[in-house]
Amino acid sequence: MALFGWDFVLRLLIGLLLSRLSSLVVTTVAALAPYGLGTPPAKAQAEQPSTEQINGDQLSTEKLSSEKLSSDKLTTEKLTTETTRTELLFRLPTPAPLIFAITPERRALLNTIRYAEGTWAGGDQIGYRIMFGGGLMPSLERHPDRVIRKSGYASAAAGAYQFMPFTWSLASRTLGLAAFGPEVQDQAAIFLIQRRGALTLADQGLFTRHLAAKLAPEWASFPTLAGRSFYGQPVRRFNELRRFYEDNLAQLRRLEPVAQVQKASCEPADSLFCRVEALQRLP
């Protein structure tokens, strides 16, 4: 068994004591670390920006924002100017109102409609003032839009072609018509004939059952192919209407020169084809 001297024992004790103190320090530092104690702050964390640096950064940000806003404003103004120039370059004149030519064939059909609706009045202009029930409207400045009740029926029809208010509004807006005079009533009636897909048949100069049936939904006095009113109202016989049409057309052809049918305005007016056509018509 080896024997150790006092100096060796003393050095051993001092080593154990130092080791114990070192462990105690490490434990203490670790315990105080969450509270910001025992650990020196890093340079990067300790260095805070100065007031001059903050002000400089703020001025740079404001300068960049101002420059961006000015650039965006200039870009917007440039785009607006270019758009305005483009609109001016391609701006086209407003299309003229659609005016239908009144040929003897069309006039004969118009007169036949008046005859069927009870507004023929021997061809007199007073027929353009007749309202439903036989009364006369006070003027031709506008559609009277007045409901009249007679013989179990109620209607606001008025004029030579007995326009209902809604139908007249549709035709007058589409054609750009004003007032309610004879000429504009004629134009609106031809528009309704065209709207029913019967204008081509009317231009043939023949009053057929097919033509009458096409117009039956527009004028209740015209017979359907079954010979009845489309709306269950009093109706004229087909042979009676055909006889009136043929007699009237013969008279018109003797009195009036044959007119050329005007070509309808380009439709739809805002299409590329119609715009190019309008440009070609410019002087």
Short recap of the structure:
It contains 10 helices and 2 strands. By secondary structure, the chain is mainly α.
Strand content: under 5%
- Which blocks of ≥5 consecutive residues have pLDDT under 50? 41-46, 258-264
Order of SSEs: HHHHEEHHHHHH
Find the count of extended strands (DSSP E, 2+ residues): 2
Outline the biggest β-sheet.
Answer: 2 strands, antiparallel
The residue fraction in helices comes out at: 40-55%
- Write out the strand line-up for the largest beta sheet, numbering strands in chain order: 1-2
- Tell me the CATH architecture of the domain at 104-276: Orthogonal Bundle
What is the overall silhouette?
Answer: rod-shaped
Which value, in Å, is the CA radius of gyration?
48 Å
- Our measurement of the CA-to-CA distance between the termini, rounded to an integer number of angstroms, reads 133 Å
CATH class of the domain at 104-276: Mainly Alpha
pLDDT averaged residue by residue: 80
Continuous helix count? 10
Structural class: mainly alpha
CATH topology of the domain at 104-276: Lysozyme
Any overview of this molecule?
The protein is mainly α and 283 residues long. The N and C termini lie far apart (133 Å). The protein has 10 helices and 2 strands. The chain has a two-stranded antiparallel ribbon with strand order 1-2. The longest helix has 40 residues, at 51-90. Residues 41-46 and 258-264 have low confidence and may be disordered. A hairpin with a 2-residue loop joins strand 1 (148-150) and strand 2. Helices cover 53% and strands 2% of the residues. Helix 4 (104-117) packs across helix 9 (238-255) and helix 5 crosses helix 6 (182-195). It has helices spanning 6-32, 43-46, 51-90, 104-117, 165-175, 182-195, 199-202, 209-215, 238-255, 272-281, and strands spanning 148-150, 153-155. The protein has a domain at 104-276: Lysozyme, CATH 1.10.530.10.
